[in-house]
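Structure ticket #2291
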Amino acid sequence: MERSGSGAVPRIVTRLRRIAVFIILIAQAAGIAFAADPASGTPTPIKAPECIGDPSALFFSQNVPLPPVHPVMPIGHYYQIVRYMGIDATAYPTASDYGSLPADYAWPPYRGLPLTGFTAPSPRNDYQRTSRVNANADNASAFQLSCYDAGSYINTWTFPDMPVSGGGAHSIYGYSFDPSMLPFVYDSHAGTDFALQASVEIPWFNPAADPNAPPGVVPVGQVNLFAYFLDSKSGKAFGLILAIFDNRYAPGAAYAPFVAHDGQTPFVSSPIGAVSRYATPSPYSWSFTGNTWTGLRFYRAHITQDNFRAMLADINAYCAANTQLRLCSGAPAFSTDVADYVLTDFGELHEVFRQSAMGNLSMGVHVYGLGAWNFR
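Resolution: structure written out below.
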């Protein structure tokens, strides 16, 4: 399913494979448990990418603050949901090409530049939704869903700001499992990893800072992969955020993993492409960045069982210090056994924050081949 990141294995990856095999052999000889080899582990789909032929029933919008319980949509297909951009955010089909600006765009320097980078198939009305008739990039955000591709173009000039506790206006391209058929995150093998992957491009980011805002306060756009895990013993869930893009970060700037709470659910956050307590990088994956790019890049993060135990330890420590927060009661708040966890939903999150009264931005994202996997 990969459009980028596949093909001939470069020499550096070959070296990494040899090193990984050598480490595994040493671990086996010493009787040490080990995770899947990120370079050559065998994948098994938890939920593979799905080619959506008719997305007409798979666009949703929500314009009220989320209920206290993390919402999921077990509809049996990948879907796209848009929040806090108006109740009609996905009400209208549009034939405009949100993949790029038109060749006759009013301002010549912008002519032909990519927006999401994904031009939906013809007829585009079947695969795109927006908030108004006669929509274009200047007057409406738009959302795309076709086969293995999804696009999200958010233009904050086109909808009123809605204060949201713990988040901002966003779209999600994702999948939710039926509550009666939630898959376990790991099988019985101690070396099994959980992994999220997708190919992504972010070709368009156009911010306009509030002239009255303090220095450094700028509109923010983010793109992340995410998953939610349910403790089958306690019935409580926590989230994992795997960061791909945040415009506040300069090239090479460190993104420190952390634990937090969004008002509904505790979560851990870690950048893709860097070794951390919570995630193990794939040698095939691109890394977190604050720069935009054109053309799909492949992203994958492995969550070893030791990574998952580290998440549980840190969330339980966080909750022990913040027992008043939702889902944080108990000692410990969450089971420490990785075998107790099932996956409720996962996806790609495109989120924006104005940051101040007159701050605005427009931003385009294209995602391809989203999936959740086990590796051994």
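Closing remark: The chain has one domain: 11-375.
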